[in-house]
Amino acid sequence: MSIISAEDFTLYYGSKAGVEQITMDIEANAVTAIIGPSGCGKSTFLRSINRMNDLIPGVRTEGKLHVAGEEIHDKQINLVQLRRTVGMVFQRPNPFPKSIYDNVAYGPRLQGIRRRSALDEIVEKSLRSAAIWDEVKDVLNKSALSISGGQQQRLCIARALATAPKVLLMDEPCSALDPIATTKIEELIRFLREDYTICIVTHNMQQAARVSDWTAFFCLGKLIEYDKTNTIFTNPKQKQTEDYVTGRFG
Fold first, then answer.
1. Where are the beta strands (DSSP E) in the chain?
2. pLDDT (tens digit, 9 = 90+) per residue, 189-210?
3. Average pLDDT over residues 166-179
4. For site-directed labelling of 114, which of 44, 136, 203, 217 has its Cα 20 to 30 A away?
5. Which of 245, 239, 69 is nearest to 166 (CA)?
6. φ, ψ (nearest 5 deg) of residue 196
7. Does residue 189 fall inside a structural domain?
8. Which residues, 6+ apart, have CB-to-CB distance to 19 below 8 Å?
9. What is the structure's pLDDT at 1?
């Protein structure tokens, strides 16, 4: 069953199309990887799902993009609620200059949760879900900026999970991390797919092959091919896809 559905979706930066006529359904409780060469529209499409591109002047869209059954460009859409439903983790860890506890409690507090016991429960659950609780449970009042880069990225995942999203967007979440931290994030992605729908943009094709159930190959703003990950990497239907996954270009 799909939770995200794009139909002839195009996004323009001024007069230039960032992505063009994208039609695809993203399955619930699965990991979908978006791959392709630099500048092909991967991140543009990912950021369209929670309307992060709205922050860029001159952006406009055509076509349809539904999340959890709602057309997200409908004038009635509640953007705050959309961004609770669709959490996001960025390329570089970006914890707030606050304590570890306050980073995770930030979203729930914005939602009006004030009771300390409720916040404690959410913080612990989110940090456990992000596989970092055991590393930070004794230093929750320590600055989030004092822990390692890999820990900061898992903290940012915990912060995204704290508002109980249905979808988690990850924009090259391991590109700034060392191999050990990357392995931990990949293990975490496999664990989180049980409860969340995950869309990950990655330039690392081995990573896409390891963590995802479905893979979409973008090139020059267009969706070239979208299929089960195993099919994309072993038996793609389009020559362009084959050339990319075998390293002939990109």
1. 2-13, 16-27, 31-35, 59-67, 70-71, 86-89, 167-171, 197-201, 214-219, 222-228
2. 999 999 999 999 999 999 999 9
3. 95
4. 136
5. 69
6. -135, 155
7. yes
8. 9, 10, 11, 41, 44, 45, 48, 218, 221, 222, 223
9. 84
Q: Tell me the mean pLDDT in the region 133-155.
A: 97
CATH code, 21: 3.40.50.300
What does the alpha-carbon distance between residue 165 and residue 98 come to, in Å, rounded to a whole number? Answer: 22
Split at pLDDT 50, 70, 90, the class of 250 is low
Q: Which pair of tokens denotes residue 133?
A: 């609780």
Average pLDDT over all residues of the chain: 96
* pTM, rounded to two decimals: 0.94
Exposed e or buried b per residue across 125-143, where buried means at least 16 C-beta atoms within 10 angstroms of its C-beta: bbbebbbbbebbeeebeee
Which token pair is 73? 């460009």
Residue 204 three-state SS: coil
